[in-house]
Specification:
The protein has about 210 residues and is mainly alpha-helical. The chain is about 65% helix and about 0% strand.
Length: about 210
């Protein structure tokens, strides 16, 4: 077997278990949904070209995601340039929602999350698409790739503190979107008022000598 054939076989062996995750990550991160196949082909081609540099026994998953992430960033940059707005200048989501955050409905979401989650795949995908590029990338690297903070920092090329803060903001925005979706579609109801206080029965028991 030729060295090139051995290289190709080893590369495919590493790549095959990750292909689905790479495709999902691309689909969620790209501004142009039609670019998924081209981005994957280009990223995988570049990774195969450099595969001789990969050290066996190290983290191939993080290594290949780095190539895909670089290709996504380049493609998004081109997309926004054609739309007369650079990726860096892509507007971030408005933070005014923080002022009107509905705590009651959020409590209802925590009490019965399935009531919302089973209906909102499309809404969640839409909410992810509204995150700024770094927040979206960090969130998906954590959710899809299962990477640790340090690995995400290496893949995204940012400090680990930036990864942690971006992930926290992304999760907070998604929680808000889930609450809004559940409220707007009648899947959540505010806690009823006028209920007995949590310890009322205990108080009555004490008064009746049953404690």
């Amino acid at each position: 077997m030729s060295p090139q054939k051995r290289k190709a076989d080893r590369f495919v062996e590493h790549l095959e278990p990750l292909q689905k995750a790479l495709e999902v990550y691309c689909r969620r991160c790209l501004s142009d949904a039609n670019a998924v196949e081209d981005v994957l082909q280009s990223a995988i081609g570049n990774a195969f070209r450099d595969f001789d540099l990969f050290a066996e026994g190290t983290n191939f998953r993080a290594w290949i995601f780095r190539y895909v992430n670089l290709e996504i960033k380049a493609t998004n940059r081109t997309f926004w340039a054609k739309s007369h707005a650079s990726l860096i200048e892509e507007p971030e989501a408005d933070d005014d929602w923080r002022l009107n955050f509905d705590e009651a409905h959020f409590d209802a979401l925590l009490d019965s999350p399935d009531a919302v989650l089973q209906h909102c795949d499309e809404a969640l995908a839409g909410a992810i698409s509204l995150l700024n590029p770094l927040e979206r990338s960090v969130l998906l690297l954590k959710a899809i790739g299962g990477f640790k903070y340090r690995e995400i920092a290496d893949i995204a090329g940012v400090p680990m503190g930036t990864v942690m803060s971006s992930l926290a903001r992304a999760r907070e925005r998604l929680r808000h979107q889930l609450v809004e979706y559940g409220r707007e579609h009648g899947l959540l109801s505010r806690p009823q008022t006028g209920k007995a206080a949590p310890h009322e029965n205990e108080t009555n028991d004490v008064e009746n000598g049953e404690a």
